[in-house]
């Protein structure tokens, strides 16, 4: 025990001595460097309308995934837990309909038909847009993943029921 304390004391003295030595020699600086002020971004060259239209023509929307109403699946789960013990006849007598959960890419066809090949697309999001029944008090969400060209990163766009989905590949 006594040797351990001695060794720790000697080690601490060596560390402090080396730290002071490096500080005196200028190898350690305890004062942090000041953070430089951010500079303004470089001005972008102006692009003529003709050039912009040629650029936009190369960037076309390609829909990869489009799912409508998946955010309401937890609501459906709660309904199943609450009414799952009832038979179909009992549910019908009580006028209760348990909706189906949303399937992945259930809106892919509709969104692709509306937007693929365009440089900009805007869709009004309503129940009738995707021909699916409403799910009680749950407001559905449309989630779309798309690309503007083949090796582009996957982009995400979301819109709630009653809103507008905007997909934009102009000048991206």
Can you describe what's shown?
This protein is α+β, with helices and mostly antiparallel strands and 172 residues long. It has a domain at 58-168. 36% of the residues lie in helices and 17% in strands. It contains six helices and five strands. It has a three-stranded antiparallel β-sheet. Strands 2-5 form a two-stranded antiparallel ribbon. A hairpin with a 7-residue loop joins strand 3 (141-147) and strand 4. The longest helix is centred in the N-terminal third of the chain and has 23 residues, at 2-24. The protein is elongated and about 85 Å long. It starts with a helix and ends with a strand. The relative contact order is 0.17. The model has no long low-confidence stretch (mean pLDDT 79).
Could you outline the blueprint of secondary structure elements for this entry?
Blueprint: H1 2-24, H2 49-58, E1 62-68, H3 73-83, H4 88-93, H5 108-115, E2 120-124, H6 127-130, E3 141-147, E4 155-160, E5 164-168
Antiparallel strand pairs: 1-3, 2-5, 3-4
Summarize, please:
This protein has a domain at 58-168. Helices cover 36% and strands 17% of the residues.
Radius of gyration: 31 Å
What best-fitting shape do the alpha-carbon axes yield? elongated
What percent of the residues sit in helical stretches (DSSP H or I)? 25-40%
Give the N-terminus to C-terminus distance in angstroms: 69 Å
Strand arrangement, largest sheet? Answer: 1-3-4
**Largest sheet composition:** 3 strands, antiparallel
Average predicted confidence as pLDDT: 79
Structural class computed from helices and strand pairing: alpha+beta
How many helix segments?
6
Order of helices and strands: HHEHHHEHEEE
| Count of distinct strands | 5
Low-confidence stretches: none
The percentage of residues in β strands lies in 15-25%
């Amino acid at each position: 025990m006594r040797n351990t304390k001695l060794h720790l004391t000697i080690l601490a003295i060596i560390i402090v001595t080396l730290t002071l030595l490096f500080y005196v020699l200028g190898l350690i600086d305890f004062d942090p460097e000041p953070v430089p002020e951010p500079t303004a971004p470089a001005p972008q060259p102006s692009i003529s309308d003709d050039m912009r239209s040629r650029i936009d023509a190369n960037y076309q929307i390609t829909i990869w995934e489009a799912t409508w109403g998946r955010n309401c699946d937890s609501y459906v789960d709660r309904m199943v837990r609450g009414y799952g013990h009832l038979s179909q006849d009992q549910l019908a007598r009580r006028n209760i309909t348990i909706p189906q959960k949303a399937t992945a890419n259930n809106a892919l066809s509709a969104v692709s038909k509306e937007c693929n090949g365009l440089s900009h697309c805007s869709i009004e999001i309503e129940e009738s847009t995707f021909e699916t029944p409403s799910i009680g008090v749950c407001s559905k969400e449309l989630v779309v993943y798309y690309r503007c060209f083949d090796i582009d990163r996957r982009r995400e766009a979301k819109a709630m029921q009653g809103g507008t989905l905007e997909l934009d590949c102009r000048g991206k």
